[in-house]
Amino acid sequence: MSVTEELKALADAYAKRKISRRALWQGAAALGLSSMWIAALERGATAAPAPTWRELRSRGQADKATTLIIAVAENVDTFDPGFTVGSKTAQTVLQNTFDQLTQYEIVEKQAPDGTPYRTVNTENIIPMLCESWKLDGADMIFTMRDGITYHNGDPIDANTMVTGYQRIFETKAVSSFLLSMGGAITDSSAFSAPDPKTFVIKMSKPNMLIPKCNVMHNTSVLNPNEMKEHATADDPWALDYFKNNLGIGNGPYKLESYKPDDSLVLVAAENYYGEKPPFQRVILKIVADATQRVQLLKNGDVDFATKIPVKEFDGMKADPNIKVLSIPSTLVTMLEMNTTIPPFDKKEVRQAVAYATPYQAIIDQIYLGQAQIGKSLVPNGMPTSDFSTNKYELNYDKAKELLTAAGYPDGKGLPEIKLTVRSDDVQWERIAIIMQDSLKKIGMNVTIEKLAYAQFNELEQGKKLQMWTDEWISWVNDPYYHMSWLAHSKSPTNYPLFSNPRVDEIIDQFTLSDDVAGREAASKEAQAIIIEECPYVFLCQPNWIVYMRNDLDGYVYYNDELPRYYHFRRAGA
Amino acid sequence: MRLLRYVLRRLLFLLPVLLGALFIAFVLTRIVPGNPIERVAGPYASDERVEEMKREAGLLDPFYVQFWNYLVDLLHGDMGVSYQTNQPVLTDLKDRLPASLELVIYGMMLAIGLAIPLGVISAVKRGTVIDHAARVLAVLGVSMPIFWIALVLLSTFYTRLGWLPGPAGRLPIGMEEPDRITGLFTIDALLHGDWHTFKEAVRALILPVTTIGLVAMAPIARMTRAMMIDALESDYVRTARSLGLPGHVILFRHAFKNALIPVLTLIAAVFGYAIGGEVLVEYIFTWPGLGKYSFDAIMGSDFPAIQGFIILATTIYMLIYLAVDVLTAVLDPRVEF
Fold this sequence. Notes:
By secondary structure, chain A is an alpha+beta fold. Chain A has helices at 3-15, 21-46, 53-58, 88-97, 158-170, 174-179, 224-230, 239-244, 290-298, 313-317, 347-355, 359-366, 396-405, 426-440, 453-461, 479-486, 501-510, 516-533, and strands at 67-72, 102-110, 116-127, 130-136, 139-144, 191-195, 198-202, 253-259, 263-268, 281-286, 304-305, 322-327, 332-337, 371-372, 417-422, 446-451, 467-472, 536-542, 544-549, 552-553, 556-557, 569-570.
C-alpha cells in the first residue's frame, strides 16, 4: 500500500468511527515521518551512481582524453612569481604558465624498487626561452629565440628579460636573495641587452651556482606592457596587481579561471612556441583535507593528487587502480637544536641526542620504509655529499657518557626541554613521540609542544625554539647554496644559530667558484665540522612519493617538487 | 509598533556586543604567538625585512592603536585585506557566506523537521518502542562526533555504494556554477530553470546536510520530548482533560505550544553550534564556505580574516536570537517587551 492509500484508509476508518480522531492524527503523523524516510531511501536506492567520465563527457563538461584533474591542497597565496614562498599551488601554476630562460635536461632513472621514472639532471642546463647560453668568464650570455611571444602576442626579446630581472632586484623579490648569493649580483645594473637577441647577466665571479637560478619559476619574466599598464606612481612594478592576477604568460598553459577554495582551470595556450601539451585542460581542484584527496583519487574523480601523507602509502600501493612512484629525493628531515639555548649550547648534549636517536625506527615506522638514510647536511643526491665522518647511531651508553661529560649524569640537572612540532602533518608529532620515548632512556625528559604553522613559523624564524623538527629541500641542487642557507652564521634560515668561523669561511670562499675539485674538498670539510658540532640531527631523507591513476603517464620529478602538467599524457594515448 | 520598537532596540544592542566580541578577538589573536607576516615574507627574507614588513602592516603599533585603526576602517566599510587570499575580507566573506548558509539552513530544516515530530511522538508514546528508538537516535546524535558522522556517511554512500558525489564541493568537478542571484546554488539553478544543475547541487548537499541535520536534531528532539512530557503532566493539561477537550486540542493547542517556547531557544543555540560545527563538515566535504575560511585564517594567524569572520558570526548569532525572541513573544502572550 502506498502512503497515499494508507492515508486514505486511515481517513476512511475515522469517517466510519472505527478509530478516534486522536488515532487518526497519530497515524497520519507517523505515516508522514515514515514516508519521508521511505522516500529518502527510495531516492537513495534509485539515484544514479556518481557521474562517470563517459556521462560527464556526454554533457560536454570534461573529456577524459583531453582533461587532466589534479587534487591540490592549497589556495593561491600570490600570483607574483617574485614572491611565491608558501603555496605549492601558486608555484605550480606559475611553473606551467611561464617558461624560464633555461631548464634542466630530463633523464630516465630507476627507483630502488626497480621502477623506472623520469627526473632531471641538474648538472645539465639546457635552453628554454633562449636558443643557447654560455658562461663567458663571470658573464652569463643568453641568445634569445626568434619570434617568441607572450600569450597575447607581445614579443619577447632580450630587453624583456632585462626589465623582468630588474624587477626582481628593484622589488627585493625572493629570487633576488637567490641571485645575489655570495654577492654574485648586487643590483639591477647587472642585466643588460647589447642587442635584442642577446641578454647578459654580469656576475662578480665565474661560478656554476647562479646559472641554476634561471630555471626556477621565481625568475619568470612578466610582460613589460602589462606591467606598465598596471603600474602606478607609488607602485612602479605593479606589485599590487600581480599579487592577485596571474600575468600574461609565455608557457604551455594559460589560466582560464580561479575560484579560491574551489578550483583553478588551466587551458593549453594556442600560440605557445613549443610542443603542444597532450592535455588541453587541467583542472586543479582544491581539496584541503588529505584524506579526501586520497578518496577522490581512489574513486577516480581525480587523476593525480598532491601532498598525500606517507601513512597512506601502503593503502595506495595495494590499490590496483593507483600508480605509486617512490622517488629518492634530496629532502632532509632534521631534529634541530638551538645552540644558544641551554642545554643545547653544549656540543656534548647535542651529540648525546644524536646517539639517542632511533634512525631506523623513524624510517620504518614513520616513513614506512620510504626514506633513505641521511647522514649529512648535504644530502645524498646533491654533489659532494659525504656521510663518511658521521658516526652517530643508536647507542644509549655512548649518549649517557656524553651527557655525563656535559655535566648532566643520568640527565640530572637538565633544564626543562620543549620539543616543538607543527600540527599540519601528523608525521611531526609521531617523530616527536618516538624521540621523547628514546630520549627518556638517557634521562632526558622532553615535553612535546604542537603548534599551528603560523605560530611555529614565527617562533622558528625568530630563533626562539629550543628543539624542533623540520625539513628542507634546496631547489638549487648545489651544496654551497644548501649550506649557505642552513649553516652560514649570517643566514636568516640558520634556525639553530649554528656558528663556526671555518664553515663561514669555506662557504664564503667557494659559493661562487668554478674550481670543482676545490669546492668538493672544502664541502666535505664543512660537512665534517657540521656533523661534529651537531646543530642538526639528520633523521633521514624521505622519498618523494607521487600517486596517480593507473592510466596516467609521463610524470617527471623535478627537484623543486612542482609537477609540470605538460609532460602528462594518458597511457596508450 | 511596540514589536518594531523592541526589534530596533535589540538591533542597537548588537553594537556593544559586536564591539565586545571584536575586542576579545583582537586580544586573543595578539596574545597567542603567531603572526601572518613570517609566512608572507617567506623563509629567505632577512630578519630586518620581516621587521620592516611588520611595521608597514602596523603590527608593531601598540595594541590600542591597532584596535582604533581597525575600528575607524571598519566604520568606512573596510575590513582589511586577508593575508592568505590577498582579497578584501568583505569580498571573501560575501563569496563564501552563501555556501555556508546553504548547508546550515537545509541542515537545520532537516533537524527541526525530524526532531520536533520525533520528540512529540516519544513524549506521547512514552515507554513504547518508538520512544526508545527516538531516544537512541538522539543519544547517538549527541554522542557521535560530527566529523565521524561525516566520514561514515562518505565512506558508505560515496566510497562503497557510489550513490552520491564525493567530497568535491558544491558541484561535480569541472561543472559551471549557475549565474549568481542569491548564491545558493539550489535556488539559483531553480530561478534559471536549470534542472540539471539543480539536481547536481542537491546531490552534493545530501551528505553534508544530513551530517549537520543528524547532529543538530539530537538535542532538539530530546528537549522537545522532555518539555512535552512536562506539559502533558501539567495542571493545565489535566484541567483541559477533565473539561473533556479533544485529545488533539490538548496536545497541540495547549501542551505543544507551551513546550515549544524553550525548544525555540534551544534551536537558536543549536543554530549557533551548527555554524561552529560547520568548520569540520566544510573541511571534510571540501565545501568552499566560511567554516573552511575561518579555519585557514586561524591556522595562518590571518588577523583581518579572523576579525571579519567573528563580526559576521556574531551578527548572525545575534539576529537568530532576536528572531527567536520575537517568535517567543508571538507564541507566549505573557512575554512583555
